[in-house]
Amino acid sequence: MTVSSFNSALDVVDFLRGQHAEAKELFAAALAVTGPRRAEAFTKLRRLLAVHEAAEERVIHPRARAEAPGGAQMVQARLAEEEEAKRALAELEGLDSDTTEFTDKLRELQEKVIEHAQREEREEFSWLAREFDPDELMAMGRAARLAESRAPTRPRPDSRVADSALAGPFVAMLDRARDFISGKV
Ligand SMILES: [Fe+2]
Ligand SMILES: [Fe+2]
Q1: In principle, which of 26, 60, 138, 180 could form an S-S bond with 45, CB 3.0–4.6 Å?
Q2: CA angle at residue 35 from 34 to 36, to 5 degrees?
Q3: 107-127 average pLDDT score
Q4: Cβ distance 137 to 21 under 8 Å?
Q5: pLDDT for 89-101, tens place per residue?
Q6: What's the gap in Å between 120 CA and the centre of ligand 2?
Q7: Is the distance from CB of 50 to CB of 173 less than 8 angstroms?
Q8: What is the Cα Rg of the chain in Å?
């Protein structure tokens, strides 16, 4: 990372909002095409969702849980939605991306992820923007960007664990993204 890109780090709310917008675009892109182009868009989408959810889990949810009014309940609800998305992604990873089943499930996930993002923006992000000063928001933004800047662009082929419903490449990427943010790698 260059000094100038480090200094131009956005605050955490702008950064995560930007990722929501990007996820929306990737869902639309994946649904608009078929074949290798769809597979490619889906790979990009799940990488984005992995680094995004890891950043939220590690950087903003703990603050909101501890400090926002009603934060524990709010974060619990968001984590439950994230867990549901994880299961849906694991299912999608097991399907041929050119089937109707894949298309239907991807569309369903698209709707849920968009609703989830809207709730975050309305509640958690608004609270962050209101309660924290710009320096703190920037510091959180830098932590959130760590996963995106360091995560591999493709899932590793050896990352499947056969007997777990959540062990597909998405989950491996999520784990790895969490480790980047926690400074373990
Ligand atoms: Fe989220
Ligand atoms: Fe989000």
Answers
A1: 26
A2: 120
A3: 98
A4: no
A5: 999 999 999 999 9
A6: 6
A7: yes
A8: 16
